[in-house]
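Late entry, 5'-deoxyadenosine complex.
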Amino acid sequence: MPPMTQAPAKKRLYIKTYGCQMNVYDSERMADVLAPLGYGLTDTPDGADLVVLNTCHIREKATEKTYSELGRIKELKLAKAAAGGAMTIAVAGCVAQAEGEEIMRRQPAVDFVVGPQSYHQLPELIARTHRALGQRLAADFAAEEKFDALPPERAVTGVTAFLTVQEGCDKFCTFCVVPYTRGAEYSRPVEAILAEAEGLAAKGVRELTLLGQNVNAYAGERGLAGLARQLAKIPGIARIRYTTSHPRDMDDALIAAHGELDALMPFLHLPVQSGSDRVLKAMNRGHAADHYLRLVERIRAARPDMALSGDFIVGFPGETDREFEQTLELVRQVRYAQAFSFKYSARPGTPAAALPGQVSEPVKEERLARLQDLLNEHQSDFNLAQTGRTLPVLFERAGRRPGQVVGRSPYLQPVHIEASERLIGTITPVLITHATRGSLTGQIAQDAMAIA
Ligand code: 5AD
Ligand code: SF4
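Prediction complete; structure with ligand written out below:
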């Protein structure tokens, strides 16, 4: 692994190990998992940032030792707090497994307990604890936030607008900085969103794109489906889109809304990242490839013309040729209308940065090229399949060439036609006459001309 993937050890970790060889081994694993978060081992709990007691439950005496040690460490925590610092206390091992929450009742200074099957979740548990205490996590991360940005909110100039409804992420994918930099999932109140949407509609906006890092985790009353239904009632609002969605949050109500609500556009950005179950598990995605494919089937049952978009990472640590092939296989089954794909990039401070089996640059390059060839082929096929169809196009702006106007199809494809700028702001049926991988061209459909 290149050394640059390790954050410098600036936080002190004290692990006290009780009991058998198994615990000794587990303590080493915990130190390994925590290294990329900047934790280095120290041999005293005094002043430590994180104290882990890796406990033994074999006899009652061993369990009682845990509680008396916790009493001593609590004093150190109080002393550190008095000096303006912070100490996190975790109980791991067999007492944690057996007594769980009971430990936190008996010793409230304990921040969390973690059983032997869950040590890989330590970074997530620590981050959640720090969030609960209102501590900023972002300071630990480099300023580069390449994967952390939502599209900036546009000033309203035209007929389409972004509208933030949700922020933050609780998913803790092991490659991703967002849960640390953006904090916990937060949903704006329905009333605030409706008021903003009404304001946008009054300025001539006809299409809203609801934004959130996990937009379909929107937790307002009746979820994102309920919100979309209310937004669709606002006079002037004809189209609603949302991005980015997590497969885990794609619930039945939202799927049903796609079948029932005309304003909800048949285009969905639903990242899967990988087609390999082993990789998905190591990514902590919380879904398998098959679960994703069945989800897509259900969505397409509700809305047969649904166009899908995705995000992919190639070269996640340990990804084998076979596992990469599984990603290609998933792509062949879904046939995305468009997609974003990235080479895995180790972000210091994220759990995956410390995983063994970092994939070499040339292998990542080669896999990305193969994946993108396939995605591009599908994108071209999707666009070419529109020729001869008549699509409702929301016209947004004048084109680069004089006499040209540009809008979007329901599937988010740019559509260029030669026509008057008076079409801007209208949804007009367009007969698609020509397509490339990036855009469509056409002319106003005959029956629309008759109406006009
Ligand atoms: N390396 C490569 N791609 C990443 N993404 C997020 N973090 C990383 C990383 N460390 C990608 C994911 C995500 C998109 C916004 O950025 O595919 O869905
Ligand atoms: Fe990052 Fe995963 Fe959250 Fe998306 S769902 S922001 S990839 S942690």
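The chain has a mean pLDDT of 90. Will revisit in the morning.
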